[in-house]
Amino acid sequence: MSRAVSPEVRTVLPSPLKVGLSRTGIEVKEFFREREQLIFTFFFPIIFLGIFSAVFSGTDFSGGVTAATYFTPGMIASGIFLTSFQSLAIAIAIERDQDVLKRLRGTPMSPQSYFIGKIGMVLVTSVLQFALLLTIAGLLLGVAVPSSPEKWLNFLWIFVLGTASGSVLGIAFSVVPKSGRAASAVVTPVVLLLQFISGVYFVYSSLPAWMRTVSEFFPLKWLAQGMRSVFLPDGYEVNEPGGSWQLGTGAIVLTVWLLVGLFLAQRLFRWTRRDAG
């Protein structure tokens, strides 16, 4: 009797989401192996919070708000932006320059899976960074932790939108530096400029009107303002230039930047350096 020919065995590849989640674990492990990046990402906002709390300790913020309490939301927002936009824009440019992305291109992993891995890493590290910053701010600087469920719900969507939009914008911006060595010099000034005009290092209402107007076009301003709505007392919003936290407007701006970042990341992302063709 002749044997029946077995049907062709097809290899079923895992979904982009599954590959991306698996990549997240690798990205997190690689992040914690880089000690310099780990220290900078986790302790930079904490160090600056301590400095600004000491420098502005005699400043009257009204409503009994201390300098540490006022600057904590800005440092949380800044930490999210450093972990997402700055870290990804620099790291991806370096990985591209060192042909890491070129090797990944030879695997079944799609750009979408790579994006998921990076965004997942940012979410994990941002949560840990926030927990560490809030613990130190509460224990050493007397910053009160919000007790209202409504404020924590606001924190959740602000955190997720801010992290996601910063991540996709970082992925898109990673194509701007011509080399990995130039990445830090290109990305860091952009982040510093946004921090200064977005109310991270200064009381936002004290900034010039034109500077506040410019900042309204960028996500960090709305991320910082949203965090102030969570950590500052009820009623403190009257001290904002608009007289309110404008959470609805902030949600719209962050969502628009998220969609713009996704579009640009899809269109502009490159596995190889420009000179590689």
Summarize the structure.
This protein has ten helices and no strands.
Helix-strand blueprint:
Blueprint lengths: L15 H18 L1 H21 L11 H31 L2 H6 L5 H30 L8 H25 L6 H18 L11 H7 L3 H13 L15 H22 L9
Helix pairs in contact: 1-5, 2-3, 2-5, 3-5, 3-6, 3-7, 3-9, 5-6, 6-9, 6-10, 9-10
Structural summary, described in words:
It is a single chain. This protein is mostly helical and 277 residues long. The chain has helices at 16-33, 35-55, 67-97, 100-105, 111-140, 149-173, 180-197, 209-215, 219-231, 247-268. It starts with 15 loop residues before the first helix and ends in a 9-residue tail after the last helix.
Number of helices: 10
Beta-strand content: under 5%
Q: Uncertain regions: pLDDT < 50 for 5+ in a row? A: none
- Specify the overall morphology: elongated
Amino-to-carboxy terminus distance: 57 Å
Query: Largest sheet, described in full?
Result: none
Helix coverage percent: 55-70%
Q: Count every beta strand, where a strand is a DSSP E run of 2 or more residues.
A: 0
- Rg, Cα atoms, Å: 21 Å
Mean of the pLDDT scores?
88
Structural class: mainly alpha
The SSE order reads HHHHHHHHHH
Sum up the structure in keywords.
277 residues, 10 helices
